From TrEMBL:
Secretion signal span: 1-18
Name assigned to this protein: TonB-dependent receptor domain-containing protein
Protein topology in the membrane: Multi-pass membrane protein
CDD domains: ligand_gated_channel (cd01347)
Residue ranges, compositional bias (Polar residues): 506-518
Chief localisation class: membrane
Record's keyword terms, sorted: Cell outer membrane, Membrane, Receptor, Signal, TonB box, Transmembrane, Transmembrane beta strand, Transport
Family that this chain belongs to: Belongs to the TonB-dependent receptor family.
Region (Disordered): 506-542
Keyword Signal: yes
Keyword Membrane: yes
Record's subcellular location: Cell outer membrane
TonB-dependent receptor-like beta-barrel domain segment(s): 362-837
Length: 877
């Protein structure tokens, strides 16, 4: 043991003696210091960033070359021959458009400005330090042109996992990668009152923002390159690899409860109503001026491994967020954002094991304990009145565990061939506990809390990728091909008996409806419903344990025919064990029209395999709305009940994508404009409710998953950016926008009634997931230790259909965000600001509880909690 310790000491000493410390200041041409400039030791992952005064300090090997890079400025290389190196960076031709990207192209020399398809590159560090958003979905909502996400209330599990999408497609039609490797989806399927109704999606909020270096968003169909789910595009999250630096922040914020306008009849403002100590909504509680208080603590640190560029980077994040309470149709009842207590961990490492060979691994663990309002129950039954006078709001609490790990080996042969063998494992588990509830068939003897069971999704993906670049073929040629094998497993596990059972008058489970019956409520005259109210438990009859495999092959080629013309082609074969094979292809090209302009376009076919949840999910539940309660069966797609209603077996969704756009760059100004067309056939949707009273199923209605509609979408994405340094400081402005028009071309109801199969309400939910437009203008100023940002985001009109079969119109709204920061020392920075500074709310709807969630509003892009004020202390050591 002593010999090992001595050996490690000698190795470490040799490493230290072989290093030297280099420091300096980085400025722009006007002499203003540049904070956040990346300085990397060439050929390694050793790097630092300049502080707010443009200063840096880094330890490097003797004779090393330093690379200085910063968005919007030309990259500079300097040999570390002296201890002090000051650098002046000049503006490049295009801000983020000059960043090298790894998404959408397997060529290592491709940048955003010369790519054939639109790609956003978002520096998460920049966004998080200039914004009060604390979750990835909300960050992207305001900086990516066609990214949409919604906060939910009264929508079961979707209150805990925000549905998000690109270009108006479903949450499951965007593929998410971590460091280029496929990320597993959530086990949750969106059902009630949500955007992305009937879809599964990836839980981006399970990834700590502090672990992310940048996010690359490919806004183009990419199934031929990456496989299923990439109909709308790809989100690739690149994690931190920096070393020898501890960064982090502590953020606190809260919402203003004083809603402006006519949100409470007869009063000018709300009083900040709060639920009682049990959270059941049957008393007013104490008034509050602020609610939804949140604390977020995050830290990131990296260490060097060896002397050849190895590293291990670690991130920890803690989040404690309280509920918000906003007006519901009965102001004692619960409606608002869920509370959340979570811990998020992530690690990323690379270890060189030979010349041009490295072992890499990354992964994380996320745990969240959440608490959300369900739909309010009224006092129309004696047992409700006796237990919860005046009615009550059950709460859906959930424990979400999300774990992942990826590992692989990269190497390069002497002939220039690059090989990458990897395996990626991920699992999401969703456990429901229902509180502040009752099983009404047990009457006053009912417990008020139930374990309702849950679901999980496991995914394991093995990849082998090969690529090579040929500089001698015309102006450059890159070829890539590979294979992927994926295993998926979906489970539903049962809860405790009282969460799913209806009991008879003797308190025994009803097993024979001909001889047993539930107690009759003397007020309503109806049998008392069973199961936990708010969310019914999964029973043994609902349990699922299903898996499938997928095998794919792909080839991808990219050729620079001339310095001005590049073409790309890709083809992919996929075979699923449960529904068969599919082949998809893509062609893309970029033409340089001059020094400042590029024309680009693409055409592709795509697909999305039905998720295991869409095939096998099933549940018996009580659907509550303003008119009362209805017992509903959501039958699995592979069941005899589904076939009896004429619903066919789920097949893949099929897509055709086309895009045409151009980029322009003039010194300090860059622009990209891209039009797109997406046609999707056989989209999987959740149907309306069919009359099932004659089938002796113990329910009055049934609904299903089906390949129910064909849609076509036309749209336009724009990104304009400008950045310039002056004597009085540095100014920048960015305008991002999306115009989107989705049409339902055909409802594929066969011989079934269209109004029941996919009627007015279901159509409105689908179209609301594709808002007509969104525009964001972001203005930033920085001078010495001071910086400020002002953002305006306009959300377009959204129309939904409520339970009264009437249109709920949400008019356009403009949300204003403001942030101000000051760097007190090299290590500490204070930022204060507000999201939705002017406390803007969506258009109020009726007061009869006809909205999907039972409040004044449905879920819309801007949210419904009002102004959020925050303060953040950032640190760097």
């Amino acid at each position: 043991m002593k010999k090992i310790a001595l050996l490690l000491f000698l190795l470490n000493s040799a490493f230290l003696f072989a290093q030297k410390e280099v420091s300096g200041i980085v400025k722009d041409k006007s002499g203003a210091p540049l904070p956040g400039v990346n300085i990397v030791e060439k050929g390694t992952s050793n790097g630092v960033s300049t502080d707010f005064e443009g200063s840096y300090k880094i330890k490097v090997k003797e004779g090393a070359t330093l690379i200085f890079s910063y968005v919007g400025f030309a990259t500079v290389e300097k040999v570390a021959s002296v201890d002090k190196i000051n650098v002046v960076l000049g503006e490049s031709e295009g801000q983020v458009l000059s960043d090298v990207v790894v998404t959408g192209s397997r060529s290592t020399k491709r940048t955003v400005v010369n790519s054939a398809v639109p790609i956003d590159v978002i520096s998460v560090k920049d966004v998080t330090t200039q914004s009060g958003k604390i979750e990835i979905n909300q960050l992207l909502q305001y900086v990516a042109p066609s990214f949409n996400a919604n906060k939910q209330s009264g929508s079961d599990g979707a209150d805990h996992v925000d549905p998000a999408s690109l270009r108006g497609m479903g949450p499951d039609q965007t593929l998410v990668l971590i460091n280029g490797k496929r990320r597993h989806q959530s086990s949750l399927i969106n059902l009630f009152g949500t955007r992305g109704r009937g879809n599964t999606g990836t839980d981006l909020n399970a990834i700590p923002a502090a672990s992310i270096k940048r996010i690359e968003i490919l806004r183009d169909g990419a199934s031929a390159q990456y496989g299923s789910d990439a109909i709308a595009g790809v989100i690739n999250i690149i994690t931190n690899d920096n070393v020898n630096e501890l960064t982090g922040s502590v953020t606190y914020g809260a919402f203003n409860t004083k809603a402006k306008g006519d949100f409470l009849p007869g009063t000018p403002n709300t009083k900040g109503f709060r639920l009682d100590k049990d959270g059941n909504g049957n008393s007013y509680g104490k008034d509050q001026d602020f609610d939804g208080g949140s604390v977020r603590v995050a830290a990131n640190y990296g260490v060097a491994l060896g002397t050849k560029g190895g590293y291990a980077n670690f991130t920890g994040e803690f989040l404690n967020k309280n509920k918000t309470l906003r007006p519901a149709y009965d102001f004692r009842k619960g409606f608002g954002d869920a509370s959340m207590h979570g811990v998020n961990l992530f690690a990323n490492l690379s270890i060189p094991i030979a010349d041009k060979t490295e072992f890499y691994a990354f992964g994380g663990s996320n745990f969240r304990d959440t608490d959300a309002y369900a739909f309010t129950r009224n006092d129309g039954e004696r047992v409700v009145e006796s237990v919860y006078p005046g009615g009550y709001t059950p709460r859906i609490t959930s424990k979400i565990n999300d774990n992942s790990v990826a590992a692989g080996i990269k190497t390069e042969s002497t002939g220039g061939w690059k090989f990458d063998l990897s395996n990626t494992f991920g699992k999401n588990k969703f456990q429901y506990d229902i509180k502040g509830t009752i099983n009404a068939s047990l009457e006053e003897k009912s417990p008020h809390e139930f374990d309702a069971g849950g679901h999980s999704l496991l995914q394991n993906t093995t990849n082998f990728d090969i690529s090579k670049s040929y500089d001698s073929v015309l102006e450059g040629f890159n070829i890539a091909f590979g294979t992927e094998f994926r295993v998926e497993k979906f489970e539903i596990f049962a809860g405790e008996e009282g969460s799913y059972t209806t009991y008879d008058t003797n308190g025994q489970p009803i097993t024979d409806p001909t001889t047993q019956s539930a107690p009759i409520d003397p007020i309503s005259g109806n049998p008392r419903p069973g199961s936990s109210q708010g969310f019914p438990g999964y029973s043994p009859a609902n349990e699922v344990n299903e898996s499938r495999t997928n095998f794919s092959l792909y080839a991808d080629g990219e050729l620079d025919i001339t310095k001005d013309l590049m073409v790309n082609a890709a083809v992919r074969f996929e075979n699923y064990s449960d529904f068969g094979s599919t082949v998809n292809g893509k062609l893309a090209s970029r033409l340089k029209l001059g020094e400042h302009f590029n024309l680009r376009g693409s055409a592709s076919t795509g697909f999305r395999a039905p998720s295991l949840a869409q095939i096998y999910y099933n549940l018996r539940f009580t659907n509550f709305n303003a008119s009362g309660a209805t017992e509903v069966l959501l039958a699995p797609n592979d069941s005899e009940i589904t076939r009896a209603f004429g619903i066919g077996k789920l097949n893949e969704e099929k897509a055709v994508n086309a895009s045409l756009g151009f980029t322009a760059s003039f010194g300090d100004f860059t622009a990209t404009i891209d039009g797109y067309y997406i046609q999707v056939k056989d989209r999987i949707v959740l149907t309306g409710y069919f009359d099932a009273s004659a089938l002796n199923l113990g329910v009055s209605e049934a609904q299903f998953f089906a390949n129910g509609v064909d849609t076509s979408t036309h749209g336009l994405d724009v990104v304009f950016s400008w950045k310039k340094g002056f004597d009085f400081g540095q100014l920048s402005a960015t305008l991002v926008g999306n115009i989107n028009d989705m049409k339902i071309d055909k409802v594929k109801n066969g011989t079934l009634d269209e109004a029941t199969f996919f009627g007015k309400r279901e159509k409105a939910f689908l179209l609301a997931s594709a808002p007509d437009n969104k525009f964001s203008l972001n203005l930033n100023y920085a001078k010495n230790k001071f910086d400020a940002g002002l953002a305006f985001t306009r959300f377009s009109k959204v129309v939904l259909v409520d339970y009264a079969d009437e249109d709920d119109v949400y008019n356009p709204r403009v949300v204003t965000d403001l942030t101000v920061g000051y760097q007190f020392t090299k290590s500490l920075k204070l930022t204060i600001g507000s999201n939705n500074l002017f406390n803007v709310y969506p258009s109020k709807q009726d007061e009869q509880g006809n909205t999907e969630a039972g409040g004044y509003w449905d879920a819309v892009q801007m949210g419904f909690s009002g102004a959020y004020y925050y303060a953040r202390l950032g640190f760097t050591f």
